[in-house]
Design a protein that fits this description.
With 499 residues, the chain is mainly alpha-helical. It has one domain. Helices cover 61% and strands 2% of the residues. The protein has helices at 4-23, 26-40, 57-72, 85-107, 125-138, 140-148, 152-179, 183-188, 213-236, 242-257, 261-276, 279-294, 296-301, 307-317, 319-339, 370-400, 409-423, 432-446, 460-463, and strands at 113-115, 118-120, 199-200, 203-204. The protein has a two-stranded antiparallel sheet. A two-stranded antiparallel ribbon has the order 3-4. A hairpin with a 2-residue loop joins strand 3 (199-200) and strand 4 (203-204). The longest helix is centred in the last third of the chain and has 31 residues, at 370-400. The protein is globular. The protein starts with a helix and ends in a 36-residue tail after the last helix.
């Protein structure tokens, strides 16, 4: 159980956010508030009230950033770029779909599930309010990205914070690689997952303050790619760049030592692509990843994903990891078949999306991939809404790339986002900073800022207040648009991960 200090740190984070917003530019304060909170606050520690989303680290960081951005950002009108109107309609349509789907889910799941010793209650309209509040909070970072990280200055801030935070996190990670994962227990009084899953190959897989070592692995992967992007952009601008390259090498070494094979492969592939390929090819790779991820359940159900080839490859590397992968694949097949019994709006919460043994009533399935959680709980409508918001900005960027300048920053951010999207297929790591990246890309391509030649945007000097000196481009609030509120996506029902 979390100790008192864990709750004290959690509830004190808004004060840290205020300090960050007073000391840093708007973009960097926003990004640091979300990412440092995710890396430092206690895992699985929450305060829960009926019909409201849990007050946990995702909620505290997102709401703190939202309130401070609303208070401190200059209130400016966006330009009316008619060429982006259709894109805005798509984004608003997907946001509306995500918010409305829980109501449809409730309406088609009012009956209980009864099978032998298994009894799961039917859903009530009361449950819809709880689900919608969770959904709204989960989308706050996406909305913050659209409003305040819609320039290449904002994208650069994202990449720099990811790279620097990863570098800082290598120190406690190395400690846990050597001494075993103990920091979360020592500081917050409990271990957030199964310790056995963090014993690997005669050593340890670190997690520091995250809820699983896999989460640390994918964040280090993101940091490697971000550092390579910043190296490439520094070379383009003819600035000193060796530091970012050395940072990427160091991060890759720590990622290797952390025993996260999947994240290591993603970091190597995407980091190499950023280092060697031009902006067009990087964008093409991101588009391919976006389309595969968006259509993954359909491709998986049709047998078009080469899962057997992947299993054979894993078997050639390590039998234990291949066995874990085989368990996941078999589990996915069974859960996908269950989800297809209610394909439109899903099974809802209370563990109705899972499988049980009728004789004992015990759960027999473990839901790992976030895509499988979404399609099981909210059906295809919920899946398309959420993964549409994560992938459609990439597609719009590809259509408008030539009008957005020669920088490597945004194509590189697409590569970081693509690596996290691939990781979401076997894992459930859809956290605040993933939504923030997707929102930042959506903001740039659908509401182009002054950095892309929009004369209607005021300059930084004209728009930034005293507390935002050095903020890069001024943040702006969208005017005359309906702004859906946001919330954190909880994992309905008992789920788990296998490392």
């Amino acid at each position: 159980m979390p100790n008192t200090f864990a709750y004290l740190v959690l509830l004190s984070w808004p004060l840290v956010a205020v300090l960050l917003f007073r000391l840093l530019s708007l973009e960097r304060a926003l990004v640091w508030t979300l990412i440092s909170g995710h890396l430092l606050l206690p895992s699985t520690t929450m305060i829960k009230f009926p019909m409201l989303p849990a007050i946990d680290r995702s909620f505290v960081t997102a709401v703190s950033a939202l309130v401070l951005c609303a208070i401190m950002a200059p209130r400016l009108r966006p330009s009316r770029d008619l060429s982006a109107r259709s894109g805005r309609q798509v984004i608003f349509g997907l946001l509306a779909l995500v918010v409305i789907t829980p109501i449809l889910t409730i309406l088609q799941n009012t009956e209980p599930v009864a099978d032998g010793n298994v009894f799961l209650p039917g859903l009530r309209l009361y449950d819809a309010f709880g689900l919608i509040s969770v959904v709204l909070v989960s989308l706050i970072p996406f909305w913050l990205g659209i409003r305040y990280l819609n320039t290449q200055t904002g994208h650069r801030a994202l990449l720099e914070v990811i790279a620097i935070a990863g570098l800082v996190y290598t120190l406690p990670a190395l400690f846990e690689i050597r001494m075993s994962p103990q920091l979360h227990r020592w500081v917050y009084g409990f271990f957030p997952h199964d310790f056995v899953q963090h014993v690997r190959d005669g050593g340890f897989r670190p997690l520091v303050f995250l809820n699983h070592g896999l989460m640390l692995g994918i964040f280090l992967c993101m940091s490697v790619i971000a550092a390579v992007v910043l190296f490439r952009e520094a070379r383009r601008e003819k600035r000193f760049s060796a530091g970012w390259l050395l940072a990427a090498v160091w991060l890759l070494l720590v990622l290797y030592l952390s025993k996260n094979l999947g994240a290591l492969m993603l970091a190597t592939m995407f980091g190499t692509a950023v280092l060697l390929l031009g902006r067009g090819l990087q964008t093409a790779i991101a588009v391919a990843v976006a389309l595969i991820v968006l259509l993954y359940p359909m491709l998986r159900g049709a047998g078009l994903i080469p899962v057997e080839a992947v299993y054979e490859f894993a078997l050639s590397i390590d039998e234990d990891r291949a066995a874990s992968l085989k368990f996941r694949l078999d589990n996915e097949d069974a859960l996908l078949a269950h989800a297809n019994r209610k394909p439109i709006a899903g099974w809802g919460s209370w563990g109705r999306n899972s499988l049980y043994d009728p004789a004992t009533g015990q759960m027999t399935s473990i839901t790992d991939g976030i895509w499988l959680i979404f399609i099981g709980v909210y059906g295809w409508l919920g899946y398309i809404g959420r993964f549409g918001l994560l992938t459609v900005p990439i597609l719009f960027y590809a259509m408008r790339r030539k009008s957005l300048g020669p920088s490597y920053v945004t194509p590189g951010l697409l590569m970081v986002l693509s690596a996290t999207l691939i990781d979401l297929l076997p894992n459930a790591g859809l956290v605040n900073y993933v939504w923030l990246m997707a929102g930042g890309v959506a903001g740039l391509v659908l509401w182009r800022g002054a950095e892309t030649g929009d004369p209607s945007r005021p300059s930084e000097a004209a728009s930034a207040g005293p507390s935002l000196a050095g903020a890069g481009r001024a943040a702006w609030l969208m005017a005359d648009e309906a702004a859906p509120a946001s919330g954190r996506q909880a994992r309905p029902g008992p789920t788990g991960r296998r490392g």
